[in-house]
User: What shape does this take?
Amino acid sequence: DTGVSQDPRHKITKRGQNVTFRCDPISEHNRLYWYRQTLGQGPEFLTYFQNEAQLEKSRLLSDRFSAERPKGSFSTLEIQRTEQGDSAMYLCASSLGPRGRSLMDGYTFGSGTRLTVV
Amino acid sequence: SQQGEEDPQALSIQEGENATMNCSYKTSINNLQWYRQNSGRGLVHLILIRSNEREKHSGRLRVTLDTSKKSSSLLITASRAADTASYFCATAPSGYSTLTFGKGTMLLVSP
Assistant: This one.
């Protein structure tokens, strides 16, 4: 297991098209996170899963965004009817957890998928 | 929303010098973490300091945490050109299961 893998690395799409990204976490990590990062900013939280359950979604995640993690393994993030404002780096991370309710471990990030909407 | 704020936004130093970055945050936390990001890549976890710890070392990295001031600092000693990257602090607020990242400090180390 070489870490968190994301596919594709780059995606250019026309406005209005749908796109889907995939993330394969570290196999023993039961938590998986999606973040979005725009130029010059830190990562912003989108959603996270514990095993196959989606436990939290950010207000940033409009109804055009959907994420799944079937069987608690890989995850997909789909954006429908893309807009230019969706252009960003989409980062996936995984971690062990939980211990109680709170996060006590670091994340392992993938290299990200850079989305450009034209 | 981004809870942490790093200072300075950008830092330029010569190889061999020390680099210090600061982070301030707003709410009570379980731990604070520092990450590095090379241009166009994902983030790499550097170090985690728990709320009951005041200082932690890892190789050339030294992290301090002052929960009364809600602030942390990251010191990189004897910097190298390969340390050139953006550095982010991330907080794990009490009772929450996700990290909140700051905007980062961009560090440039010149040979």
